[in-house]
Write a structure and sequence with these properties.
Blueprint lengths: L2 E5 L3 H13 L3 E5 L2 H10 L4 E5 L7 H11 L5 E5 L4 H9 L4 E4 L4 H35 L9 H13 L6 E4 L6 H10 L8 E5 L5 H9 L16 H4 L4 E5 L6 H13 L1 E3 L6 E3 L3 E6 L3 H6 L5 H7 L2 E4 L10 H16 L5 E2 L1 H9 L5 H15 L4 E2 L6 H4 L15 H15 L4 H8 L3 H16 L1
Parallel strand pairs: 1-2, 1-3, 3-4, 4-5, 6-11, 6-12, 7-8, 8-11, 13-14
Antiparallel strand pairs: 9-10
């Protein structure tokens, strides 16, 4: 269990708080001033500090500055008298989690401690995730594909095997799964890595423009062709060309691509000179090309030439154990890009993210994390800061409370419903409700006495 250090020069206050937190299941340490507290922090394992501001020797404010400098992840809660609230507010600006005026609202303090410790655990988990990501990147030899799930491990194994070869690769998978990253990984891990990687989105161009874009054209080949232009295949000579959405191209362009695969040569549009190239082709599609062949839309001979090695990119819903790693990586990216300091998502927010099916796959997850980081109100993103369609999919049961219900009755209904949902597991219920176990037991005893009356 977590250890809480209570620093206060008033013995009654620190011993009273110690008893309250020990009743909640925490371990406690007591210090009569800032110097004693600082010594304990350096010698013992402390998970959270509660300190008075006004103490002899090292003040609570000086203690806070020392902690922030040496142990920036150690949460500090400040206690203050009514006359030093301005100092407490300044302490918050300098890194304190919260501040309380004396006499302390014990239930509120216990709730704040529970939340601060939960956030600390999340921050520690995020640091572990970052370390895990670094290990994965070194192991895979490629930086941009992140995942430890079995489907991703299998995919990376195939990429590592096929990359050194000259074989054409067909990458399939749903939109947003990261097919372009697979092509990038194949190129980066191949002997062609020093050569160009040319990417073409076949769906974004009309058949006429696509032909010119792929194979180039001669001066005067068509209206507007004022000079010779090299095509993407020619630009990719000695490297790799990535043909995204290959299932969208027309039959005439398919024939020309087939010739490049078979003979390694082509003619520019409007030209007679044969251009020879050494290009490795990686193609991608989210269509079922076998069905397109049956429908007469895609050439069977081209399909087999492209499909020498087939790599299926798994949808995100089939690799959910990778979501925490991806989230951690995206948070780092957007913190750097947008100058933010978001540490992560709360437990309830993470649960909602894991429960969601992600039809847009990694692209949707990335966009969601970016939006949350940009709009975050604090260091932790809570469930109410998620997009509504994701937050509403959290698998927690809902509790209906009628307008006009008193706060006392609403609290009772929420507590009893939560305990029932977790089948009487009071420890789990207290954790979810973010209240102390002692507080939960006291509430339940009050409700039981009310029923007896």
């Amino acid at each position: 269990m977590a250890t809480i250090l209570i620093a206060d020069d008033e013995k009654n206050i620190r011993s009273g708080l110690a008893i309250a937190f020990e009743d909640e299941g925490y371990d406690t340490l007591q210090a009569e001033d800032g110097q004693a507290a600082w010594t304990m922090i350096n010698k013992k394992s402390v998970d959270l500090v509660i300190t008075d501001l006004r103490m002899p020797g090292i003040s609570g404010y000086d203690l806070l500055k020392k902690i922030n400098a040496a142990y920036p992840t150690l949460p500090v809660i400040v206690l203050t008298g009514h006359g030093s609230i301005e100092d407490a507010v300044q302490a918050m600006r300098d890194g304190a989690v919260d501040f309380f005026t004396k006499p302390v609202d014990l239930d509120h303090l216990i709730l704040t401690v529970s939340k601060a410790l939960s956030n600390k655990r999340i921050s520690e988990q995020n640091r572990q995730l970052k370390a895990e990501i670094d290990v994965l990147k070194k192991k895979q030899g490629y930086q941009k594909i992140i995942g430890k799930s079995a489907p991703v491990a299998k995919m990376m194994e195939i990429i590592a095997q096929v990359a050194p070869s000259k074989a054409s690769v067909l990458v399939t998978g749903e939109s947003g799964t990261g097919k372009e990253l697979v092509a990038d990984a194949i190129h980066s891990l191949s002997s062609r890595a020093d050569g160009p990687l040319i990417k073409v989105n076949c769906a974004s161009l009309s058949p006429t423009l696509l032909e010119s874009e792929l194979f180039g054209h001669e001066k005067g080949a068509f209206t507007g062709a004022v000079s010779q232009k090299k095509g993407r295949f020619e630009l990719a000579d000695g490297g790799t060309i990535f043909l995204d959405e290959i299932g969208e191209i027309d039959q005439s362009t398919q024939i020309k691509i087939l010739r490049v695969l078979q003979e390694r040569c082509f003619e520019r549009v409007g030209g007679e000179e044969t251009v020879s190239v050494d290009v490795r082709i990686v193609a991608a599609t989210n269509r079922n090309l076998e069905q397109e062949i049956r429908n007469g839309n895609f050439r069977e001979d081209l399909y087999y030439r492209l499909n020498v090695v087939h790599i299926e990119v798994p949808p995100l819903r089939e690799r959910k154990e990778d979501i925490p790693l991806l989230i951690s990586s995206f948070i780092d990216t957007f913190n750097q890009e947008d100058g933010r300091h978001v540490e992560g998502f709360t437990n309830s927010a993470r649960k909602a993210l894991l429960a969601y099916s992600w039809p847009g796959n990694i692209r949707e997850l990335r966009n969601t994390v970016e939006s949350c980081v940009v709009l975050a109100r604090g260091a932790m993103i809570d469930v109410d800061e998620l997009p509504p369609h994701i937050a509403s999919r959290d698998e927690n049961e809902t509790v209906s409370i009628n307008v006009g219900t008193t706060l006392e009755e609403a609290e009772k209904k929420i507590i009893l419903s939560t305990v029932a949902h977790y089948k009487g597991n009071k420890t789990k219920a207290a954790e979810v409700l973010a209240i102390g176990r002692k507080t939960l037991h006291r509430k339940l005893e009050e409700y039981a006495r009310g029923q007896e009356c």
